[in-house]
Write a structure and sequence with these properties.
Layout: E1 6-10, H1 13-24, E2 28-31, E3 35-38, E4 42-46, H2 48-52, E5 67-72, H3 75-83, E6 95-96, E7 102-107, E8 113-118, H4 120-129, H5 134-141, H6 145-153
Parallel strand pairs: 1-4, 5-8
Antiparallel strand pairs: 2-3, 3-4, 6-7, 7-8
């Protein structure tokens, strides 16, 4: 068996396609009109009720029970890009998790929760650049030095 994608129910596939192309730079791999898939595995489906046979009223908006997670190597640059879209509904401001990764959460046009975080390799490099040792970074992030090294070598 092979995993192929996560599929999101959307009301207007053109609007959602534009959102993901413009904000995230995603590229369409396959386009079937009411269904499209981006390179990397995210897919969008208009008329989800038709596809699945689920009653239209049972296709929920903002269920807040999952999120799409992205990592960005230029996190500050992404925040500037996001600031150019005041219409996007944000869940809050940037937060820094205990392991040091900065993230921001917001909703796509159909109410799907999205997290954009600093690329983990950049977090490690930031810590090392601020004078922390690999041992200190390992302790802060609660990860082995071997895993940190693999991340840096990837």
């Amino acid at each position: 068996m092979k995993y192929t994608c996560a599929l999101l129910a959307v009301a207007d596939i053109r609007r959602s396609r534009q959102f993901y192309e413009q904000l995230f730079g995603l590229e369409v791999f396959q386009d079937y009109g009411r269904n499209l898939q981006f390179r990397g595995g995210l897919a969008l489906q208009q008329d989800f009720d038709w596809l699945t046979g689920i009653e239209k009223e049972k296709v929920l908006q903002k269920p807040n029970n999952m999120e799409l997670a992205f990592e960005e190597s230029d996190f500050d640059g992404f925040l500037e890009k996001l600031a150019q879209h005041p219409e996007i509904d944000r869940l809050g401001d940037v937060i820094e998790h205990s392991w040091g990764q900065r993230v921001i959460r917001f909703y796509d046009p159909d109410g799907h929760l999205i997290e954009v975080g600093e690329d983990m390799k950049m977090v490690v490099r930031r810590f090392l650049g601020n004078g922390m040792t690999m041992e200190e970074v390992s302790a802060r992030m609660d990860v082995s030095i071997e895993d940190l090294q693999r991340l840096l070598d990837a």
